[in-house]
Design brief:
It is a single chain. α4 links the parallel β2 (67-71) and β3 (110-115). The strands form 2 sheets. An 11-stranded mixed β-sheet has the order 1-3-2-4-6-5-12-13-9-7-8, with helices on both faces. It has a two-stranded antiparallel ribbon with strand order 10-11. The protein has 15 helices and 13 strands. The chain has a single domain (3-436), classed as Amidase signature (AS) domain (Amidase signature (AS) enzymes), CATH 3.90.1300. It has 450 residues and is of the alpha/beta class. α9 (251-268) packs across α15, α10 crosses α13 (327-350) and α10 packs across α14 (380-394). It is globular.
Length: 450
Amino acid sequence: MSLLDQTLRDQAAAIASGEVDPAELLDAAHERIGERNPDLNAIVETFPERSRDMLASAPRGPLYGVPVAIKDEWPLPWRGERLGAAQFLGGSPEAGESGPYRVLRDAGAVIVGVANMHEYGAGSTGHISAWGAAHNPWDLERCPGGSSSGPGSAVAGRLVAGAVGADGIGSIRYPAAYCGIIGLKPTFGRSAMEGHHLPQTQTIVSGPLCHDAADCRLLASVLFGEPLAAGEAGGLRIALVPGVLWDDCDPEVREACQEAVRALVDEVAESSSEEELPDPYLVAISSVLLGSTEELGIAGPREVASLGEQVSLIARGLLRYRLMLPAAAIARAKLVRTQVRRSLARIFQRVDVLAWPTVPAAAPRLENPTVELPSGSWPADYVNPRHGGIANLTGVPAISVPVGHTAEGLPIGLQLLAAWGRDDVLLDAAEALERATERRFVDAAPPVPA
């Protein structure tokens, strides 16, 4: 097995022990990107000389010499972010030392490429991008999830063992679920965000996508600038949320997630229960209203009108629609956010972890990103936010863990949420779930063409 197929931890340990030359690992990573990326389109730009320069000056940090990728949402000293779009909103992108770049550099990591993303970050599927759609390594005709489509595809396809994405309305967790990896949406404000094109965002966070929870813990610690120590998951109080978040899911997804929760309860739970949440549809609408209108701070009528046909018709239509939203709708969404935050605060006094499927169905086809649910056929972008939006609306941490596969061999993800600042609890629970399932899902490899 190539070292590239192993975890961030394994790669870092092999380099630290002198078993592996980091320059050789870097060359191998670029070679693998050259071999596999034409099918995946996960990486949109590489810069071998810049990567070698990073390695030459890398400090002996926890990720010394380890190749990683970074989403096209973050500027680098030699490249401005493009946001997966042919035309930038609010002026031209500028190169610079973003927060995620700096913490990766200071940890000794080597950025080998910029990863693809859904155009302007405005979708949960990844099927639209100025770079062309990224592809799901489990089925190249399927969506990899969005908007962190490239990070999800790159990690699942073993181009890199870890990548930095961004999560605004589920944008790390959807690719994690679709691609069969782990993705952590950190507590709001906890991870490095400097240099983001929306400096006053109230919903977006940077976060890790990795093979397993321990790698997520390592990369999250780097992004947080503080260690996330592993704890004992025993005695967790786990609660399910009855209703549409479980009932209106593809039966294979629902059954796999229910089985995973039972395994987690048997492994570590002190108790399990049910907790009622506010109306998921109201929460989804509010999270989309607040998350999508943040762009209006840099994209007024003049900027939107200037967009040419190289920008997708969907993106142009959505931006025009946002300009017409009444202020009352945004004010009511903020009121919902306050109410939901209070509801979650009360719930997390009684329980430690909430659980439901990350997405209601496995990855849809790129050519037609709709999903079949008990309630009917829906665009994935319509139903996914009701599962993922609440964590961004309220700022609490959330994680997606692979827990099964459909009959067609597509990954299934379970989502766990915890109280504000309890990212460590989610990682402990995810590691316990990996033990309970004997790691058969986090260690599963997709049929990536070499």
